[in-house]
Each structure stands twice: as C-alpha cells, then as structure tokens.
Amino acid sequence: MSMQVASPEKNPAFPDAEKIISSAEVEQALAKMAAQLQPIVDESNCVLLGVMLGAMLPLTRLSQLLHGDFMLDTCHATRYQSGLSGKELSWLKQPSVDLTGRTVIVIDDIFDQGITLEAVVAAASSNQAKRVYSAVLASKLHDRQLSDYRPDFCALTVPDRYVFGCGMDYRGHWRHLPDVYACLLYTSPSPRD
Predict the structure, then answer these.
(1) Residue pair 19/25 in contact by the 8 Å Cβ criterion
(2) Residue 96 to residue 117: CA distance in whole angstroms
(3) What is the structure's pLDDT at 181?
(4) What is the pLDDT of residues 141-152, one digit of tens each?
(5) Beta bridge partner(s), residue 72
(6) Less Cβ crowding at N or C end of the chain, within 10 Å?
(7) 165-187 per-residue burial string, b: 16 or more CB within 10 A, e: under 16
(8) How far is CA 118 from CA 13, 153, 170, in A?
C-alpha cells in the first residue's frame, strides 16, 4: 500500500508563501556549521543547548553531524506563544544540565532582533558556564537590531519576511517542513527571535 502525501502548498491551511530555501540547501548549510562547531565540541565537556521549540530540528540535525562526546539539553524561552509578533520574554523551562564549567553552544532557529538568544546566552553565562557560544539556523537581514549582540555562528540568511519551516513556525504550525518558506503577506513583520 502506497501513501501519497500532498505538498504543503496544496494544503488549504498552508499560508500564502513561497519556498525560499530548499532542504538540500539547509542540509548543506548545517553540515558547514557542524564543521565550524566541531573544534568547540572537541574541547570536551560541551553541552548543546537548544532553545525550544524552534531549535528542535537544527539541534537534532547538528547533533547527528557532530562527532565525539557532548551532552544535549534544552531550555524554553519564548516571546511568541504561537503568535506572529513578539512580546515579553517568558521562561517556560530552564536548562536541566548543570552548566558550571562547561562549554555551552546555544542553538536557536532564527536570529531576528536577538532578544531571546541574548537572554539565553546571558543566563548560561550567569550559570557559570566556562564559555558560551551561539549558533542559529537563520539570521534575518534587516537593520532593526536592538543591541550589538550577534550570534557566533549562522548557517543561513533569510529576507526580512515572516519565514517558517526547519523549526520555525507559522502560528504554531509547519515547523516540521524540511524547506524554508517566506510568507507573501508579511513583508514587514514584527520582530521575531
């Protein structure tokens, strides 16, 4: 018995969007990022800390591409709660692993204005991590930064539009897509981390 799966674009609930980055391009970018992160992991006592829910896919794929011994953990800090615009930062889950003396690589899905990522990196540093790095799947191209903070590693850049797929969501949906899509209706979105 064969099962046919409709493409997301043909699903009536799929937003008016276009594919901007293919799954092959995502995979290539993550492989390049893993090669950049490998020397940090090789230093030992490393924790990959994914910011949920967006980092779920990039964290999983990076952990499969990296070699050696490291720990995986997650935290959940959000400004969206499945909405389209950011609000005040909310901590739903702190890291479970003791970060004291460890090298921490914070993994997130997207860097927009950096509020969430900067807060997670600061929290890891205040928990006496030896070193803290940040790595994001995508960085949005715009000039609305609220601070000078920038991620240490970035796999892809995306236009200043509302993007989803590869961990990034649209109203809580479509995170699981292997490609990256950009909404056609949200060309000037509210800030998103």
Answers:
(1) no
(2) 18
(3) 97
(4) 887 766 788 999
(5) 48
(6) N
(7) bbbbbbeeebbebebbbbbeebe
(8) 33, 13, 23
